[in-house]
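Lecture 7 notes: from sequence to structure.
We start with the chain below.
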Amino acid sequence: MTDATNRYRVTRFVSPDFRKTLMPANKITIRTATTADENDILALNAESVSVTSPMDSSRLRMLVDLSAMTSVADVDGGVAGFLIAMADGCAYENGNYRWFAERLNRFIYVDRIVVSGDRRSSGIGHLLYSHVEDWAITARIPTLAAEVDIDPPNTASLRFHEKSGFVQIGKRLLDNGKTVSMQVKALAHDRLSNTSTGFDWPNKRPDAL
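Predicted structure tokens for the same chain:
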């Protein structure tokens, strides 16, 4: 992790109507995770481990090293949520990531996004996703990818991703018995050039199934 901060206020991401549903703008900061956030991130992951996957300190550091971004939602000096995302082309040995890599040309994959139980429905998830989308558009990456549990279902996450513009392009049965929905979101069509990005929804590789 880095000690540098990358601060984004609520006003950068959301419309005035949506902003009304959030906590006051000066209370939430989306920033790059630092080493001081490690224990908070691990505690949040443990709180939601049934819908993500176990993560200890060594795994967290490995994921951070592979990630294009590891960001936290800072509320009054405390970590209320975090997101870890990997870009295409990284050496991440993960079945879901590899599934997308076999099918998409350029993408950013949300490995995990977690919001504290007492801060859900406060807009933090939207802010974290807006942050990664903003980064991807700047990097001219046309597709955001993520998986969501469907058996057993993570109903709140399914609803969130549907409202956020994600669509299912496949399913995977995991080794632990879960079935996940493999979902993608096309980013800012009008701001991406087909010739410069190779973008052609659903942005599939020519040899993909």
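Points to note: The longest strand covers residues 78-87. The chain has one domain: 10-197.
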